[in-house]
Hints:
alpha+beta
Amino acid sequence: MARIDRALLGSANDNVTAVGQRGAMDSTGVDINFVSVLNRIKRIGGAHRILIIDSKYGYIPGFYLGLDAPSATTVRLAMLHAISDKTEWLAWLGLEEQNPDDWLKIQFACLVADNTDLRCTAVEECLEAISCGVQFVPVARSDMNSTVESAHHTVHRASDHNMHGTTHGKKKERGEASPDEDACHTIIEAIRETARAIHAHNTMPLDMIPTLAEHRELVTQGIPLTRLNLTRWDISRGKVAISLIGIQEARMKLLMPIRGTFTKNGVKLLRPDRGDRREFVEPVRYIARDKDFVQRTIRARVMRGRVTPESWDDDFLHDPYHPSHIYYRDPVSGQLMELDAKVNSDDSERLVECSLPDMLDLIDTCSLDRFNARVGRDDAMSALEDAQDHTNQESKAAYQRDLDEAPKKPSKAGMKRDKRANRETEKAALVFGMPVLPATDPIQADSQPTDEPAQPPSADDTEGRAPEAEPPSVATQALPPSPTTSASPLVQSILRRIAERSRNA
Length: 505
């Protein structure tokens, strides 16, 4: 209660005079229930979001949103997002309407946080590597980190509470419909809408009284007073607490390490959740046009059988929520090489809609389908082999019958000697080298096709007269059935020759 009645003679940000001098970081739950990117029928619950805010004007340069709870990994990804260029990231999200220059890169000299997100040795060592200190607020004193706490509510109202499946930041009361019933958004869609909300937060005009300098240099020039314009104005005047480090250095110090192996098709990542078991993250592979990279893939192809598979493993750097690129640090030059992901052209959505955890879930989900496919393939091969065995038995039995009825058993030399003559005889009985299909409507051999349509008999001709059956001619008895009544003369002549040879045999 002592805090409520104290005199407020200033604010915590009164001594902030430069951009990046102090930042505020905090995590919160996203007020949305999500569905799986693999199947929208499956509910996956909520997610977590980390915001990083510059204390000078409240500008938000970066954030993290994902399923992972706040940890050293998520904090590092949020920090990297704040100091990275957003051009490729906006294209990946499909936000071409946003200008990448509206997303400023800011590196902080100090971060203010509570005793949850940054309170671990891994985070402190990581931030120390990029010259960033940490200041922790006392327990139950969120008012001392009010900048980011207020931003949480702003993003909740601007984005989360307007989406399907929202919880509106409160628990479900008895009798109310569960937000899970209305859930239909995936994580990638939440990231996209959060980016839109933060961009609106940074670029909307502020209801404030400008300073004299702001009035002279911004208001009179027609430049609206927004968090983006004010922050950019300070940066142009050199009011920056700490210089930006290079993006390669930032990636080397903030990205997550992962094991991968060189193959003839490029680099394939090893699943980090399988321990010592070697299992690839399929079907994604990573390639680069660098000369040293190409030479290493050639050696992996030529010499892979001479050494153990582990000999081609190496460490790579990756962002699990942006799997379209990974990075490899050359052990000789120390330079960071960017590798691009490659998949089939029909599977390009995998790199857009799926994170690395989503890909691992997709592999596990498809493993049962692949097992069922193998079972179905085995069943199909069994049915094929069973039909082949039946055909072999029938053919063998027919051959044995002909062999028993033959007056003399043919010798092996005789079989080879008569093969050509037998082939010519067989070709003469075929049409274009193929057997003739059996007929279903035999025709008379002496009937000739005519172009005039047949006239039906009149009633006077058929009345009181019984039908007379004409005996078939000899030629009709000798001919085999013809396929159709519209058989060509060539086919009819071939059939006649076959019938004559059968009579002479």
